[in-house]
Write a structure and sequence with these properties.
The complex is a heterodimer.
Chain A lengths: L1 H10 L12 H25 L4 H4 L14 H9 L2 H32 L5 H12 L3 H14 L6 H5 L6 H12 L3 H9 L4 H9 L4 H17 L2 H6 L8 H11 L3 H33 L4
Chain B lengths: L1 H6 L3 H30 L2 E2 L8 E2 L3 H7 L2 H31 L5 H11 L6 H11 L6 H8 L14 H26 L3 H9 L4 H12 L1 H16 L3 H7 L10 H11 L3 H31 L1
Antiparallel strand pairs in B: 1-2
Helix pairs in contact in B: 4-8, 4-11, 4-13, 5-8, 6-12, 8-12, 11-14, 13-14
Classes of the chains: A mainly alpha, B mainly alpha.
Chain lengths: 289, 295
Amino acid sequence: MKTEAREYEHQGHKVKSGRRMVGDAAVDLVLILIALLILIPVIWMLMCAFRPEMELMKYPPKFFPESLTTENFSNLLQRLQILTYLKNSIIYCIFTTVPQLFINSLAGYAFARYQFKGKNVIFIAVLATMMIPFQVIMVPLFLEVVKLGMYDNYAGLLIPNWGVAICIFMTRAAYAALPKELEEAARMDGLSEFGIYWKIMTPLIMPTLMTNLVLGINGAWNDLLWPLLMTSTPSMRTLANGIALFLETSLQYGTAFAGAFISVIPMMILYIFGQQYFVEGTATSGLKG
Amino acid sequence: MEKIRNYWKKPEHVAYLFIAPAVGLLFIFRILPTAFSFVCGLFDIDMFLNGKGFVGLDNFKEMFQDDYFWNALKVTIKFTLIEVPIQMLVGLILAALLTKNNKFNKLMRAIYFAPIVCSATVVAIMWKMFLHSNIGIMTYWLEQIGIKGINFLNSPEYTFFVLVFMSVWRSFGMSTVILLSAMQGVSRDMYEAAEIDGCSDARAFISITLPLIKDTFGFVFMTRLIGSLQVFDLVFTTTSGGPARTTETLVYYTYTKAFSNNRMGYGAAVSMALFAIILVLTIFCYRGFFSEEKE
């Protein structure tokens, strides 16, 4: 799959292979209808965040708001520790993905550029962890984290997610594609092994790191299960699970919409600016779940 | 001291330092729990490891007599059998239609892929309100065209399919993008040769494109299969397994048993059942899709 994606990048827009099997206009119409199936509910949801509660409850419902308000957001501030959730989501994103990139790219670099005893066996073991479904090991993993005293604190929320096999795999491939001369020249100049990794090689695989970063941020931001398992006090909740738990207890539609708005907007902005990383990362590696 | 420093300067030694953090973390937080997952099922313990302790195979015996376990298993398999084929078919068709890199197609791809930024919580809030039985705008529109009284989110017949729909809605863009990049890798010469031979577009798709993207198709299929068997977050945020347990999947059941009822051992036993299914299916699919190249 890697080579196919690369081929696609090299040949750029010249590549063409899929065929239109039905009339073009009819096909375009269906494609547009599918797009509307995504756009209409999303746009409607974003607008609902600014509609007064009374209007949301009214029958018949209208697609466009009749009046606009920010009361849903002030309700959100009063009823939930939304700023704390927001802070935790940001912490969860940054301190999961940044150490992830460092730790896994360091390993990916070693697997790509060094010969050492046991390399293949260890690498296969690393790849094997990709096959372990998280949901299957969640109970023993939870007990282990509790036993280690990391339950309901940032350590437990963050550290268990730092080792990521797919990230090792992707960075390994990127480092392996770099020329040997670079490394040798740097060694001649007296740079330490870590210096070669950090100053010479890593800047050259920035696109791969960016892909991992963007997908990692999106994954962490939207992650529901892990923060749900690892935290119990409300002040430890992230946006995704804090709002999900709020939904179970409350029937305030406007507040829920405002929560959804706050939780989805940052990732929408990330998507608009980093779309190529989302798509490339998915196309080359495939995502889990 | 100097000796030690020189030792770690050698590239083949420094490699161990470089892989140590990642391999250590993977060992502690992935491999160890996997090794202990079966053992956990042999204990009757709560979150903080208190309880009766070792009970042998009692959890497993109880599980096989537990109607709710069988129900969850049935729901999970039904979900997978419906969701995965829809997902693959939609992904395949859309990928075929969007292969050309023109502006329109790029825009469509970008839109189809966009739900990846929605968390299960956001998807739940959106569709729960959109399909709300009284004030949902979709329900209202359907009423206008004569389809009345469908309670999408609280009926034993429909809610399951709403869950399938939401799951497809959220991830078909991903399947499309992966299949699409494989299709774009197919050489154009193949199609030109087929055209000269008087081959129709549909025929070319079936006899050229499909065989050549088989590996990628197999990869997406397996990923989706494993993902569907583990479906949890949409269930948690939209239906909580209801109504009448018609959407209670295995992972959701594991979650309620282990974390709401605080029976870790029993939860671990239920996840072992899921593990067994995933393992068997993975081996089975792997053989089906990737065996020929090995020969």
